[in-house]
């Protein structure tokens, strides 16, 4: 497992530059002119986006520099193997001052101590309570906050209006209704529901009956409650024949499958909205909150934060940047076009996303979403789950037996 191997490596390397981290801790001594009135340059690193997103970020950074003339931001795009590059640079004490961190990767990085806790920098005006709580909690541990989420997406139900109208089907509000609707919608080479059979999409379903996918930082997905919760997805494909994964119909992902009108429904995120608008503008569709399971609402959330390098020598300037980009003004600029959703409730309301025709169900899900993050061993747990679950989805194995084998293998790897 990469995360565990890196943690072990970091344990050795920490002796080499632990003193540097300690010397640069706290609210920050500064160098290179910080606090003296001279211009300070800080580095912000992240992965690349589409040209429209890049333009929005540049607009936000220009606005920041206009309001903070003594701070210059050097924006660095790491296009390939982002986390591997960041981890290598952290070990070598060459990491950027501020960088993106996905919630999925956050637990392992927080554990090493390379991230600066941000709580002592926060003022009342920053209004931490404005953030959607589950998204913020993904970057907190032991009462400390190590990042503020810059954007997110949840999952929602995308449904083809024309197909629903022709079949005389109402938009389902429960999973049972969705399964029945899928039967009526599956015809003429179209499946009722497109499914992505992977843990990143199945997690909230797996825990919907009270089971735990991860317990004590180990795989626990062979739990009978987890198996029971996942069985309907398997049955919908292999018994009802009303569900399929994108590759079954020659598509690469759920949005393409839906846009090609090979599935009447898919469960996708905010990213599907601009994709459908650009690639399949003639498809008439709607979105809704994901149908309830066992009477409870559920969805996934995927979120990314800005974090500060604990070894940065320009902490005050770095915080000024994080404060602006995750504050109301900077976040409004970044999320204004709807490519990503704002993690602040006030910004979502100001931009009208909470009432938007397509995005409202995605915004509504933020308050009850399961964030895609759970401990340092989730990558290993995910890999072993996915390897077996796809085989089950394709009808090659039984769910209970496959998940038991996957759980045993995951925990063996974690133990090693």
What does this structure look like?
This protein is α/β, with parallel strands linked by helices. It has two domains: 219 residues, 3-Layer(aba) Sandwich (D-Maltodextrin-Binding Protein, domain 2), CATH 3.40.190; 189 residues, Periplasmic binding protein-like II (D-Maltodextrin-Binding Protein, domain 2). Helices cover 43% and strands 16% of the residues. Strands 1, 2, 3, 6, 7, 10, 11, 12, 13 and 14 form a ten-stranded mixed β-sheet that branches. The chain has a two-stranded antiparallel ribbon with strand order 4-5. A two-stranded antiparallel ribbon has the order 8-9. Helix 1 packs across helix 4. The radius of gyration is 23 Å and the shape is globular. The relative contact order is 0.18. The N terminus is likely disordered.
How do the helices and strands line up, and which of them pair or pack?
Blueprint: H1 2-23, E1 40-46, H2 51-67, E2 71-77, H3 82-91, E3 98-102, H4 106-112, H5 133-137, E4 140-141, E5 144-145, E6 148-160, H6 161-167, H7 175-185, E7 191-194, H8 199-206, E8 214-215, E9 218-219, H9 224-238, E10 243-244, H10 254-259, E11 263-269, H11 272-279, E12 285-288, E13 300-308, H12 315-325, H13 328-335, H14 345-350, H15 360-364, E14 370-371, H16 378-393, H17 399-415
Parallel strand pairs: 1-2, 1-3, 7-10, 7-11, 13-14
Antiparallel strand pairs: 3-13, 4-5, 6-11, 6-12, 6-13, 8-9
């Amino acid at each position: 497992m990469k995360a565990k191997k890196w943690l072990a490596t970091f344990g050795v390397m920490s002796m080499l530059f632990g003193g540097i981290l300690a010397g640069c801790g706290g609210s920050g001594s500064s160098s290179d002119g910080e606090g003296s009135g001279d211009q300070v340059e800080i580095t912000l690193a992240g992965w690349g986006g589409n040209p429209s997103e890049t333009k929005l970020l540049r607009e936000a950074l220009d606005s920041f520099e206009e309001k903070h003339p003594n701070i210059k931001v050097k924006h660095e795009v790491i296009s390939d193997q982002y986390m591997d590059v960041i981890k290598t640079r952290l070990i070598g004490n060459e990491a950027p001052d501020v960088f993106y961190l996905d919630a999925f990767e956050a637990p392992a990085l927080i554990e090493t101590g390379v991230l600066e806790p941000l709580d002592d920098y926060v003022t009342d005006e920053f209004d931490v309570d404005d953030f959607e709580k589950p998204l913020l909690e993904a970057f907190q541990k032991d009462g400390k906050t190590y990042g503020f989420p810059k954007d997110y997406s949840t999952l929602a139900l995308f449904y083809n209006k024309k197909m629903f109208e022709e079949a005389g089907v109402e938009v389902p509000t429960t999973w049972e209704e969705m399964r029945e609707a899928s039967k009526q919608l599956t015809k003429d080479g179209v499946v009722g529901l497109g499914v992505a059979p992977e843990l990143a999409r199945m997690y909230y379903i797996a825990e919907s009956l009270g089971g735990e996918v991860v317990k004590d930082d180990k795989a626990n997905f062979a739990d009978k409650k987890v198996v029971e919760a996942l069985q309907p997805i398997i049955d919908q494909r292999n018994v009802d024949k009303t569900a399929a994964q994108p590759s079954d119909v020659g598509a690469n992902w759920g949005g393409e499958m839906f846009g090609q009108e090979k599935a009447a429904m898919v469960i996708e995120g905010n990213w599907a909205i601009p994709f459908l608008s650009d690639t399949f503008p003639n498809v008439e569709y709607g979105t809704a909150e994901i149908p309830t399971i066992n009477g409870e609402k559920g969805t996934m959330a995927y979120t990314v934060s800005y974090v500060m390098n604990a070894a940065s020598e320009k902490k005050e300037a770095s915080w000024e940047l994080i404060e602006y980009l995750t504050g109301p003004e900077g976040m409004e600029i970044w999320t204004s076009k709807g490519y990503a959703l704002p993690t602040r409730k006030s910004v979502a309301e100001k931009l009208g996303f909470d009432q938007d025709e397509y995005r409202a169900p995605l915004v509504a899900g933020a308050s009850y979403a399961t964030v895609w993050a759970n401990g340092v061993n989730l990558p290993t747990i995910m890999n072993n789950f996915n390897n077996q679950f796809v085989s089950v989805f394709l009808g090659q194995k039984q769910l209970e037996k496959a998940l038991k084998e996957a759980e045993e293998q995951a925990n063996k790897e974690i133990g090693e």
